[in-house]
Design a protein that fits this description.
The chain is built from 18 helices and 13 strands. The protein is α/β, with parallel strands linked by helices. Strands 1, 2, 3, 6, 9, 10, 11, 12 and 13 form a 9-stranded mixed beta sheet that branches. A two-stranded antiparallel ribbon has the order 4-5. A hairpin with a 2-residue loop joins strand 4 and strand 5. It is globular and about 65 Å long. It starts with 13 loop residues before the first helix and ends with a helix.
Length: 443
C-alpha cells in the first residue's frame, strides 16, 4: 500500500494512516541525522519594531523591522531541524525585559543587544563567551572587520556575533536646502561651526518658513548622542577611562549651547519626540533630521512616494562644528545566555551563522556592514546613498566602556531635557549630571 494514492490524497484507512505516521517519523529521524541535532525550537528576543508580514524574501523587505524579520523567518525555514520563534519587544524597555528574563531564569536563547551593554551582561556572567563555538558553526571571525571583532570582545572573550555598525547621520531635505541657497555641486552645504549652524538655520527659516533641524529631543536619548558628538569634536568626553566624570565642563557647555541657540531663535523644536521629529522631516517641515543609519532604507522608500513631503533625499556625515570630526556610534550584536548548552546551543549557533551570512541583507537598512567581504563588495557599494556617508565609519565615537552605561545615559537624557524643556540652567543641569554619573561610576 502507498502512503498516498495517485492523486496525492492522504490515506483514509487505519493501515494507511499507520504507514504514513511511520514514514513521517522516518523523515524526521533522517533530518535529525543530517543536521546532527534533534529538532529544536529557538526563542529569539529582539527590538527593531514589529513586522507581521515579512515573509522569507530577504531581498524584498523594507525597513528595519521587516528586513530583520525576513532574515529570521528565512533562518527558521531553511535550517533543518530548527524553528525560530521571535519575541519582539519595544526598544524603549528592551533591557528591562531582558534583565527580568535573566533574573527569572527564562532568557531568550538568542537576543540582540548593543556593544555598550557587553561589560554589564558579560561582567555578570549572563551571556556566553562563544569564541570556542564560532568556527564549528561556520562563522569566520577573520571576515569580521577589526572594529566588529573589537565590538564583541571583552576581557579576552567573544560575547556575540556582530550585526552592524550604526551611527547618527544628517538626513537632508534637498528641496529646502536649495531654496535656502545651501546646495553646491549637488551636495548640501553643511555648517562648520556653531555660528555657521545658526546662520544656516536662519537662512532656511527666512527662505522657507521651516525649521532647520529636527531630532528627538524629548523622548529617547537622540539629544544625548548629539551633545556627546559635539563634546567629542572638542576632544572631550563625559567620563575618563579611570572612572572620573567630566560632564560639567566648557566642552559640554559649548555642545549644549550649539543646540539651545536654535531653540531660543525658534529654528528648531525641542518638544519633538522620535515619531514626531521623523514625521516632521517626512512632511517637508525640516531641512535636516538627526537620526541614525537605521532609517536610510525607509526614508529612501518614503521619498519615492508622491504623497510624502520629502522628495529629494540626501544622507550626510555628521558635520564637524568644532576641531575634530566625530559622531555617536554603536554596534548591534547577537548574544546567547551562558546557561545554554547541548543541542539547543548548537541550534542557536546555526541561527547566528545564518544571520551572519545575510549581513548584506541587513545592510540594506542603511546600517554599515561588519564583514569585510561585504564591505568590499560591489553590491554593498551600490546600496542607495551609501557613498554619501562613506566618511561616517572614520568619525564614529563612543564613551569608554562601563557597566553603568545605560544608567549614565538615562541621567544625561533627563538633565539635558530639563535644560531645553523646563528651563533648568545649563550650569545646574551639568553639575547635577556630573554628580549623579560619578556616583554611578563609583559603585
Amino acid at each position: 500500500m502507498e502512503a498516498r494514492d495517485k492523486k496525492g490524497r492522504e490515506p483514509t484507512t487505519a493501515t494507511g494512516r499507520k504507514l504514513m505516521k511511520h514514514l513521517l517519523i522516518g523523515a524526521a529521524m533522517a533530518a535529525t541525522i543530517a543536521t546532527g541535532v534533534s529538532a529544536q525550537e529557538v526563542s529569539l528576543g529582539r527590538f527593531f519594531g514589529a513586522c507581521e508580514d515579512a515573509g522569507t524574501d530577504t531581498k524584498a523587505s523594507v525597513g528595519e523591522a521587516c528586513i530583520i524579520q525576513s532574515i529570521i523567518n528565512a533562518a527558521s525555514a531553511e535550517i533543518d531541524g530548527v524553528t525560530v520563534n521571535t519575541l519582539p519587544t519595544d526598544w524603549g524597555n528592551f533591557y528591562d525585559q531582558i534583565k527580568a528574563s535573566y533574573a527569572g531564569g527564562t532568557p531568550p536563547d538568542i537576543h540582540v543587544m548593543h556593544r555598550h551593554r557587553i561589560p554589564e551582561f558579560a561582567g555578570l556572567g549572563a551571556i556566553a563567551d562563544i569564541s570556542g563555538d564560532l568556527a564549528a558553526a561556520g562563522i569566520d571571525t577573520g571576515d569580521w572587520a577589526p572594529a566588529a571583532l573589537d565590538a564583541v570582545s571583552f576581557n579576552g572573550g567573544i560575547y556575540g556575533v556582530p550585526l552592524d555598525f550604526h551611527a547618527n547621520l544628517w538626513h537632508v531635505n534637498m528641496d529646502i536646502m536649495e531654496a535656502a541657497g545651501l546646495v553646491e555641486d549637488g551636495k548640501p552645504v553643511l555648517p562648520s561651526s556653531p555660528g555657521e549652524l545658526l546662520a544656516h538655520a536662519q537662512k532656511v527659516k527666512d527662505a522657507t518658513g521651516q525649521h532647520y533641524l529636527a531630532a528627538d529631543f524629548a523622548q529617547f536619548p537622540i539629544g544625548v548622542r548629539l551633545v556627546l558628538a559635539l563634546m567629542w569634536q572638542q576632544n572631550a568626553n563625559i567620563f575618563t577611562d579611570d572612572g572620573t566624570a567630566t560632564i560639567n565642563s566648557a566642552a559640554a557647555k559649548n555642545a549644549v549651547t550649539a543646540m539651545t541657540q536654535l531653540f531660543e531663535a525658534g529654528l528648531a523644536n525641542p518638544q519633538l519626540n522620535y515619531a514626531d521629529s521623523q514625521q516632521a522631516f517626512l512632511n517637508g517641515e525640516a531641512a535636516v533630521l538627526v537620526n541614525g543609519t537605521w532609517v536610510v532604507d525607509f526614508y529612501t522608500a518614503e521619498a519615492a512616494k508622491a504623497e510624502v513631503g520629502l522628495n529629494k533625499y540626501y544622507v550626510a556625515d555628521f558635520p564637524t562644528l568644532f576641531e575634530t570630526g566625530a559622531t555617536w556610534a554603536d554596534s548591534h550584536m547577537w548574544a546567547i545566555p551562558s546557561t545554554l548548552s547541548g543541542d539547543k546551543k548548537t541550534a542557536a549557533m546555526k541561527v547566528l551563522a545564518f544571520i551572519n551570512d545575510h549581513n548584506i541583507d541587513w545592510a540594506r537598512t542603511g546600517h554599515m556592514a561588519v564583514r569585510s567581504s561585504v564591505l568590499e563588495s560591489a553590491e554593498y557599494a551600490n546600496l542607495p546613498h551609501r557613498s554619501e556617508y562613506a566618511g561616517t565609519a572614520a568619525i564614529a565615537k563612543d564613551t569608554p566602556a562601563s557597566k553603568r552605561y545605560g544608567a549614565i545615559q538615562d541621567v544625561l537624557n533627563r538633565e539635558l531635557q530639563a535644560i531645553w524643556l523646563t528651563g533648568k540652567s545649563v550650569d545646574d543641569a551639568l553639575a547635577d549630571a556630573e554628580s549623579e554619573v560619578q556616583d554611578l561610576l563609583d559603585r
